Amino acid sequence: MDAGTYDRWYATPRGGWIGERELALALRGLAPRPGESLLDVGCGTGDFTRGLARALDGRVTGIDIEPSWVAYARQRSDAGIGWVVGDARHLPFPNDSVDLAVAVTSLCFIDDERQAIREMLRVARRRIALGLLNRRSLLWRQKGRHGGSGAYRGTRWHTPRDALTLFHDLPVARAQVRSAIWLPGGGWLARHTERLWPAWLHGGAFLLVVAELADPQEPQPA
Question: Which domains does the chain have, with CATH numbers?
Fold first, then answer.
């Protein structure tokens, strides 16, 4: 899929609603403080990055391994957002260089997702969030089985337990999972259902795992 086709999906009623729900859940999980900086890992065409930048007053940077997608994102954003071509498994940033880091369904396409998470933890000072696709959802039944179909072909899906296991033995103080997009159709019923189900139930297509970084000065539990 080319960058323009992908970006236009977010301009459809269904794509726009899904994007808004994912963004709202990510912002609640990250809980940015005034002036904090953020790195969006695997930013793609930058739609999510631009949404984050509108909600934050600190520096926002998007990074993606595909140069043409980064160029597309740069052409459609204001000068306040930074855009970098780079690999999530080897982020070209110093240790503790941003306050927050997020990756929205981008690690689902990376072979060594644990290495990418280690890198996010290395560059972030306070909190990271991962947006993943839920193997315990209606969307998986529709699009994820037998290797996936359409834009979901080859995508890695996670259970809520898998999502927490990604942080095993990594320097985080705590991690929690929330979900959204219970009915992925995006119509009236989907929007009504979304208001009824709390985010702490894990049946939505979109899983958000938020990890608080451990304070190196505090003793960790054995």
Answer: 3-213 (3.40.50.150)
Going by their DSSP bridges, the two strands 124-133 and 206-213 should be labelled as antiparallel
Q: Does an H or E element contain 21, and which?
A: helix 13-30
Is residue 175 within 8 Å of 120, Cβ to Cβ?
no
What are the pLDDT digits (tens) for 129-166?
999 999 999 999 999 988 888 888 889 999 999 999 99
Could you tell me the two tokens for 23?
């963004």
| DSSP label of 134 | B
Phi, psi of 85 (to 5 degrees): -90, 125
Tokens of 22: 């994912």
Could you report the per-residue pLDDT of 14-34, keeping only the tens digit for each?
999 999 999 999 999 999 999
Query: Are the C-beta atoms of residues 170 and 90 closer than 8 Å to each other?
Result: no
Q: How far is CA 19 from CA 10, 70, 189, in A?
A: 7, 19, 17
Say what the pTM is: 0.92
105: nearest Cα among 154, 188, 43:
43
